[in-house]
Amino acid sequence: PRAVEIFKESGVDVDVKVGLTPEELHAIIGEYDGLAIRSATKVTAETLKHAKKLKVVGRAGIGVDNVDIKAASANGVVVMNTPFGNSVTTAEHAIALLFSIARNIPAANTSTHAGKWDKNMMGVEVTGKTLGLIGAGNIGSIVADRAQGLKMKVIAYDPFLTKEKADSINVEKVELDDLLARADFITLHTPLNDATRGILGAEALAKTKKGVRIVNCARGGLIDEAALKAAVESGHVAAAALDVFEVEPAKENILFGVPNIVATPHLGASTNEAQENVALQVAEQMSDYLVNGTVTNALNIPSVSAEDAARLKPYIELARLLGSFTGQMTESGIKSVKIDFEGAAAKLNTKPITAVAIQGILAPLVDSVNMVNAPLIAAERNISITETKNEKTGDYQTLVRITVETDRRTRTIAGTIFGGSHPRIVEVNGIALEASLGHHVLFVNNDDKPGFIGKLGTVLGKNGINIATFHLGRKTAGDEAIALVEVDQPISGDVVKQICDIEGVKQVKSLNF
Question: Which residue from 294, 326, 282 is spatially nearest to 61, judged by alpha carbons?
């Protein structure tokens, strides 16, 4: 209920519809800009085909294997999760399961309820034992902290764990084979992807210390279930506790009923505190994106904080104009795009700026392109995208330059921010000029000859087109020149042809922003 209030307080209309079948969801999703889900709802490519207005999917929780992120990106839909709302809860569940298999608690409970009073259930202490973390991110770091409180030694395998981070959380960073050989307990805390799927398979399990105990509260599929069953039944793995399974809901599984395997039904995030936290977070994140454009905890687009959003706003507009200008000017296949950031621009979070620039460049060529799917579309078309940054200032305190290489030529355009908020073009194809861009702009490339401006003005006047601003630049006297003319009316193809007929004109384009 509080999450619903957060949406409404932000000015977002919200409907609560739980328990929908996929068909029922597909029938209504076309009406909505956002979709907030937990783990049960599947957002598939088929779902997204029906979601013509959808801008954002918010997952109340960390795992997004129920969302087709690739399809969402292709459809320009931002996918967010809430990676921190249930971190403590999940870490605590991992520790609880660790204790349960160290001291045979589930089996002892069942036996005692049956009136057996079986004292012959020997466990092991955790004090002084080595805990191996596979994954030392947010949840893994909390598990490490709790385990150290239990006087365990913690080692960690995580390709993204820096030495500085490992030192700060007091864990030893090791390679996977080293962890497998040394750990008395192993607990997994990684996402499920191509690199981690089956990370504990038969080969890896064979490398573990005999008598190892394994906990998985992360994702089903990280462990090869058949290999784990064999390792437990052989006695090589003393016990395992799983909260997640390859297929969920797990009504049947080859691990069920196997002695020394503890199973819980994906309860890692199941506390009142966690469920409320992730619900409130996803409501805040989605509202902030839909209303203000702030991107938080997105998985398929660079995140932009509220502070960044305000700072980036004029640069986003500049990138939109520069990209749109270049895209409208481009008449052949694009091979590469290079975006240079100089001065103050180089110190910003440039990924969103680049995404918007690519969107502008591709918009004349591709329908329904936005900053989410633009990089993906560029990759599909084999367009190379590169960024460079130089914090030193040149003629301008801040500058963004786009260079587009096509099959026929290379074109550049550069812009800056005036007065802290006003985008301005300052260079086109190496020719310096300063221009703001209105809704309708005429681009003219011509020889720098006397009388040209008068002839151009005459054509526009005869056709009832009023000039708002007129900006000129040239390489040298009598050489190549460029005019950017902002006008009050759209310019027809016939008028463009008349301007092309003026002596010395090389290229004319009617641009709309």
Answer: 282
